[in-house]
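Q&A log
Question type: sequence-to-structure
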Amino acid sequence: MELTQRILQQFVVLAEEQHFGRAAERLTMSQPPLSQAIQRLERGLQVTLFERNPRGARLTPAGRAFAEDARRLLEAQAAAVDRARRIASGHEGELRLGFISSLGYDLLPRLLRRSHAELPGLRLQLSQHSSVELLDMVQAGTLDLALVRLPVTGTDLLTVQQIGTERLVVALPEGHALAAGPALDLCELAGQEFALPKPDALPGLAQQVALACAQAGFTPRALGRADDLPGLLGYVAAGLCLALAPAQVRSLGLPGVTCRPLRGDSPYLETAIAAVHRPDGPDAAVEQVLRLLAAFDQ
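Response status: OK
Response body:
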């Protein structure tokens, strides 16, 4: 016989009440159909589940054992339905998230904390790569969502959603003469030696630094180049030169590095942060993470 959810619920309620009248009232049905349903259940199982008497219905030993299993079946069924609904709504499951290194210091930890608090059933699988690699992985379907800095190229077949902006700061060797004041104008950096981002690895930051310096009237002199922020800041920490970097690097507290904000309203002093996903409509988990990111006050 088929053990439907309805018959299991009827049996469990009767097992709890041990009285057909009270059980029928809880089930919002009349007593005769309940009695008939339990009789069909017993015939199908070929087991007597209740001992009937004028005062009610008492579980047999077999009935008590079946009641325990029936409750577990109902709980498992409810859990399965709830899990399917949560996955469909993006509250559970797995999301493959890629990010560039410069977003791993502040934005990513905040996202992980918020996701753990609001979406505890959603597991984020993290991958750090360059912007170019991340876009290729999203396009290929090996990542669900990528966090990058704009501008980037190769997004014609992808959906790009800006989620915030961030100012550039100047990273100076500790004790540098320009670190004496609370803030700097970019033109004050003319003539200084820079650690510059490699355009093929950090295209957005490389373009931004070049344009910002050009607008300030100078071309930065490269003492060295690096393909990630730790490399850039390594030059600074060694006391060799300075670097322009996103403000998130201030959270690192690197020994030997002092950060100062840059004055001015040049658009090149701000960098846009974006989330990239495939254009066939983000799935529920991607939508949930985008919702969390949209709530951040960049």
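Response note: The two ends are 60 Å apart (CA to CA).
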